[in-house]
Amino acid sequence: MRPTERLDFTDPLRLTFTAQVLAVQGQEVALDASAFYPQSGGQNADTGLLRWTGGEARVTDVRVVKGEGVVWHTLDPDGALPTPGTAVHGEIDAGRRWRHMQRHTAEHLLAQAFRRVNPAFEVVAVSMGSAECHLDLKGDPADTHVQAAEALLRETLGRTELTLETPIVPDHELHRYPLRREAKVSGQVRLVIFRDASGEPFDVSACGGTHVPRAAQCGPVVVLRTERQKAGLTRVVFMAGEEAAAHLSGLHRRMRALAQDFSVPVEGLPERVQATVEDLSAAQAEAERLRTRLAAALVQAQAGSGPCLTLTLDPEDASLLTPALRQVPAGRVLIACTPDGGCGVASAHPAVPAGEVLREVLALTGGRGGGKPDLAQGRTEQPGLFARAAVAAVQARLSAPRGPAA
User: How far apart are CA 390 and CA 384, in angstroms?
Assistant: First the structure.
C-alpha cells in the first residue's frame, strides 16, 4: 500500500480535504491523503469527521505506521464505514488543532529559550497531551533560570516577528542548519524553523508536528512550576496560547475576589496573606497553650491519693487525649479514653511500662496501638471496658513483689 500524502506537513492551517480510501481494517481506514495529524512526538492526534456519499463517521484517533508512512484513521464504532475506493471529505476539529499547534510551538520556543539561558539545559523528553505541557530538561534549572527563560521568550514573542518555515531536506544537508537537537530520523527530514525578518533563525528542529504560522500566536507562554524528576533532570510544566490566557484570567479573577475579601488591592495580597498566616500561627500557639492548661486541669481534678488515675473525656474534649496523657504527675499512672475509642496510658512510675500495659489491655478489648514505657496510645473497640481492664493491669504490676535490691 502506498504512503499517505501528509497534507498536515505542508499546510498546518488546512482543516478540510478530499481523499480516497485505500484500505479498511476493523474500525480504521487508510487514506491516500490526509490533513489529520497522527499522534506522535508528544502531540495528540487530531479528531474530526469523514463524510462520503451516503454516510459519515467521527474520527476519534489517528496513527501512522512508521516505515510505511500509511496514516490510519479510527472511526466511531457507532458509525458506518466507507469501502476501499470511496471518495471521502475530511474535516479537522479546528479548536483542537489550534490548541495543539500553540502547545507544540511553545514547546519548541521555550526549549530554545532555556538553551539560550544555559546550553546545559538540554531537552530529554516532552509532552503536550493536555493543557499542562512539560519539558524534561537536563541541568537542573533553578528559579532564576526559569524566570530568565520566560522573560527571553516573552520579549522575543512581543518584539520580534518570527515566521514558520517547514522545509523537507535530505539528511546529508542537515549540517547546514543550526539544529537545537540532533535529528532522530534519516532520509528526507522535515524541519520546523522560526525565523525573523532578517533571516536569522530563533529555533530549528527536526519535527513532524503542526505549529502556528507566526510564533507570537502561541503566546502567552507561562511556566507553572518545576518538578525534580531525579538527579540532573527537572520537569518544566507550562501552558501556552489560549489555554494559558484562560488560566491566567481565571487566576486573576480568583485573586481579585480574594483581595476584595481582605479589603486590599490585588498587589497587596501577598503581604496580607503573610500577615494572616502569622496571625493564625500565633492563634494556634495560644490555642495549644490553652489546650495544655485545660488538659492539666482535667488531670488534676482526678488526682487522689492512689497511684492510678483514670480520665474519660467528653466527646467535645476528645482532642485533649494526648495533651492530657502528657500531664501525668510524677510517680503516678494515667489511663485515659474517649467515647469514640481513643485510648492511652501514661506512666511516671518505674514499675509500670505504658506500652506494655496498653498492648495487654487491647488484646482483651480489641483494637490497635503501641508506644513507649512513658506514653502509649491507640484505639479500642470497647472504651468502657478498656479503663477497667487497664486499672487492673496497672494494679497487678504495682502489687507484684519486687526482686531483691542489687
Answer: 10
Q: Give the count of alpha carbons within 13 A of 101, CB side only.
A: 25
Residue 193 bridge partners (DSSP)? 165, 204
Burial 228-244 (b: 16+ CB within 10 A, else e): eeeeeebbbebbbbbbb
Q: What are the beta bridge partners of residue 168? A: 190
Per-residue pLDDT at 406: 43
CA distance from start to end of the chain: 96
Buried/exposed code over 381-406 (b: 16+ C-beta within 10 A; e: otherwise): ebbeebbebbbebbeebeeeeeeeee
Question: Which three cell numbers, joined as nine digits, stand for 363?
Answer: 488484646
Contact 133, 239 (CB under 8 A): yes
- Angle in degrees, 0-180, between the axes of helices 94-117 and 143-159, rounded to the nearest 10: 120
Please check whether residue 379 is in contact with residue 368, taking contact to mean a CB–CB distance below 8 angstroms: yes
Residue 2 DSSP symbol: P
Q: Parallel, antiparallel, or unpaired: how do β-strands 70-75 and 5-6 relate?
A: unpaired
Banded pLDDT at 66 (limits 50, 70, 90): confident
How far apart CA 317 and CA 340 sit, in angstroms, is 11
Distance from C-alpha of 2 to C-alpha of 84, rounded to nearest angstrom: 14
At 97, which helix (H) or strand (E)? helix 94-117
Full strand arrangement of the beta sheet holding 233-240: 123-127, 133-138, 233-240, 221-230
Give me the chain's average pLDDT, please: 94
Stretch 283-293: mean pLDDT: 94
Q: Containing H/E element for 406? A: none
Work out the number of other CB atoms within 10 angstroms of the CB of residue 47. Answer: 19
> Alpha-carbon distance 346 to 372, whole Å?
9
3-state secondary structure of 55: strand
Cell of 349: 512510675
CA 177 → CA 174, 181, 199, 215, distances in Å? 6, 11, 13, 19
What residue type is assigned to position 283 of the chain? A
- Asked if residue 369 lies in contact with residue 376, where contact means CB atoms within 8 angstroms, the answer is yes
Residue range 252-268: mean pLDDT, rounded = 94
Give how far Cα 251 sits from Cα of 113, 224, 247, Å: 25, 12, 6
Percentage of the residues of the chain whose pLDDT score is greater than 90: 89
3-state secondary structure of 355: helix
